[in-house]
């Protein structure tokens, strides 16, 4: 996988946010680091690595309250603002990993409306 330092630093920051505010469940925290494997896909397109989907599942799957769903929304909104991100790839990532979101991933989505 080709990680430029900019891409890696950006995803490392997001990954750190995931771990710090995600559920304390050890199963979730063990899988969440795999989101870093989504970097190549959201910057270059192509095939979504299975390990990326493991991370998306660990992050999106447990979001079963309004607060957690809004957090997921804010996180995707933050990532959508990264320079060079292929927005189409980011928008289709959860669905390609078998997760359904109740909002459109966008740099301007109003996450306060996610319930």
TrEMBL record:
Q: What GO terms are given for molecular function? A: lipid binding
Question: What InterPro entries does its record include?
Answer: Bifun_inhib/LTP/seed_sf (IPR036312), Plant_nsLTP (IPR000528)
Keyword terms: Signal
A Gene Ontology BP annotation from the UniProt entry: lipid transport
The record's section on SUPFAM superfamilies has:
Bifunctional inhibitor/lipid-transfer protein/seed storage 2S albumin
Q: Which residues form the signal peptide?
A: 1-27
Q: Which family does it belong to?
A: Belongs to the plant LTP family.
Recorded protein name is Bifunctional inhibitor/plant lipid transfer protein/seed storage helical domain-containing protein
| Organism encoding this protein | Lithospermum erythrorhizon (Purple gromwell)
Record lineage: Eukaryota, Viridiplantae, Streptophyta, Embryophyta, Tracheophyta
């Amino acid at each position: 996988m080709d990680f430029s330092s900019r891409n890696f630093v950006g995803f490392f920051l997001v990954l750190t946010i995931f771990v710090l505010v995600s559920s304390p469940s050890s199963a979730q925290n063990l899988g969440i680091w795999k989101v870093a494997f989504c970097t190549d896909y959201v910057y270059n397109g192509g095939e979504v690595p299975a390990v990326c989907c493991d991370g998306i599942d660990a992050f999106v799957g447990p979001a079963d309250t309004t607060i957690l769903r809004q957090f997921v929304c804010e996180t995707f909104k933050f990532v959508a603002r990264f320079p060079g991100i292929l927005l189409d790839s980011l928008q289709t990532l959860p669905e390609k990993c078998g997760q359904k979101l109740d909002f459109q991933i966008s740099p301007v989505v109003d996450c306060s409306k996610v319930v």
